[in-house]
Amino acid sequence: MYKCNNCDCKFETPRKVDLETYYGVYSTFGNSYGEMINLCPECNDNDITEYDEEEEEKTIEERVYNYLVENHRGKENLIFSSNGVDYNFFQTIDKDYKFESEFTKVLNKPCICYYGALASWFDYDLIKKINDTNKYNIVLFGIKYDESFDLSGINELKNVYFFGPRDYKVLKNYASKMDVMIIPFVLNDITSSTSPVKLFEYMAMKKPIVTTDMLECRKYKSVLIGKNYEDFIKKLDEAMKLKNDKKYLDLLTKEAKDNDWSHKAKVIIDYIKKDEKWKIY
After folding, report:
1. How crowded is residue 253: how many other Cβ atoms within 10 Å of its Cβ?
2. Could you tell me how far CA 18 lies from the centroid of its own chain?
3. Quick one: CA torsion of 246, 247, 249, 253, rounded to 10 degrees?
4. How confident is the model at residue 28, as a pLDDT?
5. How many CB atoms within 10 Å of residue 215?
């Protein structure tokens, strides 16, 4: 299999063209007569690489573990600990918190929310598609990590509300007013290597979660995965129906607690205790 780094399509057989035909002139790169170049059959770009489908489907845990085992240290005394959450922190909401009037105005219809960096890995086109449905107010908190937010133009859309950053201690108060929490990331090398902390925070707040098809998010039963733009919007509709579903809320709680930092620390400490050479204070 091959992958085009220009249009991101995947294919089994590249299009083969000789250098003279591709460049339109006789090649000056030595004796290249008859030399062929591989092209993407979709966009005709030559920036293609071999693609290992099994490797692409591995989670961060599997990739890091295999890399360390194969290249550095073997399997002995090796534990992988992913991101997690302080579950108890998110159980306390300030019911007397004074929200800005600009924020309370957006609560006039169902709200979906993202908080975090607004950067090139954020799928602005997906937000535009959601906006076009006119079903939801889209509430965004966070910093403009680069120019992508301003260049996207989404702040001019009817149903998009950007409130900038908030102190971490009070951010949960805003999120408590939302109906569904989202992680709308594009799929690329960065996001395929991402374990979003906010995922576990959303779980701890017992909010329905919809994400794009990131490998790490597939690991959790409580996460609704949008395979494409149309499916993402369908998952939002499904998530709205789950916000008061006891069975689903219990699942969110279970997966949040399973990823509590105290649980992850205990696993590490218990493992170390097995080795009599180490003393835990």
Report:
1. 16
2. 40
3. 130
4. 46
5. 20
Whole-model pTM: value is 0.76
CB 141 within 8 A of CB 165: yes
Residue holding tokens 């701890």?
204
Own/partner pairs, 7-14, CB within 8 angstroms, 24+ separation: 7/40, 7/42, 7/43, 7/45, 8/188, 9/40, 9/42, 9/43, 10/51, 10/53, 11/40, 11/41, 11/42, 13/41, 14/38, 14/39, 14/40, 14/41, 14/48
Amino acid at 153: G
Q: How many helices (H) and strands (E) in the chain?
A: 11, 11
User: CA-CA distance, 110 to 127, in Å (whole number)?
Assistant: 15
Among 15-19, 47-51, 135-139, 230-234, the least confident range: 47-51
Reported as type and span, the H/E element at residue 50 is strand 48-50
Q: Supply the DSSP string of 8-40, one letter for each residue.
A: --EESSPEEEEHHHHHSS---SSS-TT-EEEE-
Closest CA to 214 of 246, 184, 243: 184
Answer yes or no: are the C-beta atoms of 122 and 148 closer than 8 Å.
yes
CB 76 within 8 Å of CB 190: no
- The CB density around residue 52, as the number of other CB atoms within 10 Å, is 11
**Backbone CA torsion sign across 253, 255, 261, 262:** positive
Report d(CA 123, CA 182) in Å as an integer.
Answer: 11
